[in-house]
Amino acid sequence: MDALIIAAGYGSRLADLSPSKPLTPVAGVPLIEIGVRQAMAAGVTRVVVVTGHKADMVETFLADLSLRAGIEIVPVRLSDWSTPNGHSVMAGATRCEGNYLLMMADHMFEADILARLLLEDRPERGVTLAIDRRIDNPLVDPDDATWVKMDEQGRITAIGKTIPVYDAVDCGAFLATPELATAIREAIAEGKSGSLSDGMQRLADAGRAGTMDIEDAWWMDVDDPRAHALAEELAPWHLAPTIAEIGLPADES
């Protein structure tokens, strides 16, 4: 199983902390390294990373990480990293074989979430999204979250940052099939901007977008200084095996 990690964006809200959002350290470990090692712990054997902003810096780090972690990491560079995140999915999916675990570089997860997600392959689904029904989760920024509305079978009916009614929040981890990149491409052809949510909504409209409830598992989106401060406090507790096995002191991150 491949993992595809989107790491191309600018990350303006973390710019004062780090020149590169994927390389922003949490508990002394760069976010992109946490993501790669969590994917490995879930059973992934190869990682594709879409780079853009500060691509040279990120790709140099990934080359070293590949050697240290003992896993193949394939960088795919976007020439225009200002485009919506669906363009990163389309670019990275061309290097993935079959289904793949899709992750955002600024999200952290307990490894069990990702391991469970890898078991969610269903012939009736083009994608499965990890969702959190705790819509009042204090770790979620309601102004930045992507919200999800579902039917009684747990299939997505609507997804986006501004949908008026919702049941859950998008956790930023997906078990994707090749249908997802196709759906994004078709959405662009219809005049959409090419966001990941555009492709997800297209699959939802076709009844092909499923969900997996993470229940009481822990995750975080590290998107601004407030979230980063919380991550510094909480990640060592929730991601102890991942962070402990790296063994990097903070000043070497």
Would you spell out the secondary-structure blueprint of this structure?
Layout: E1 2-7, E2 25-26, E3 29-30, H1 31-42, E4 46-51, H2 55-69, E5 72-77, H3 85-93, E6 100-104, E7 107-109, H4 111-117, E8 127-132, E9 147-150, E10 156-160, E11 168-176, H5 178-189, H6 196-205, E12 209-213, E13 219-221, H7 225-238, H8 240-246
Parallel strand pairs: 1-4, 1-6, 4-5, 8-12
Antiparallel strand pairs: 2-3, 6-11, 7-13, 8-11, 9-10, 9-11
Helix pairs in contact: 1-4, 3-5, 3-6, 5-6
Question: Characteristics of this structure?
Answer:
253 residues, alpha/beta, nine-stranded mixed β-sheet, two-stranded antiparallel ribbon, 13 strands, globular, disordered C terminus
How would you describe the overall organization of this protein?
The protein has 253 residues and is α/β, with parallel strands linked by helices. The chain has 8 helices and 13 strands. The chain has helices at residues 31-42, 55-69, 85-93, 111-117, 178-189, 196-205, 225-238, 240-246; strands at 2-7, 25-26, 29-30, 46-51, 72-77, 100-104, 107-109, 127-132, 147-150, 156-160, 168-176, 209-213, 219-221. Strands 1, 4, 5, 6, 8, 9, 10, 11 and 12 form a 9-stranded mixed sheet that branches. Helix 2 links the parallel strand 4 (46-51) and strand 5. Helix 3 packs across helix 5 and helix 3 crosses helix 6 (196-205).
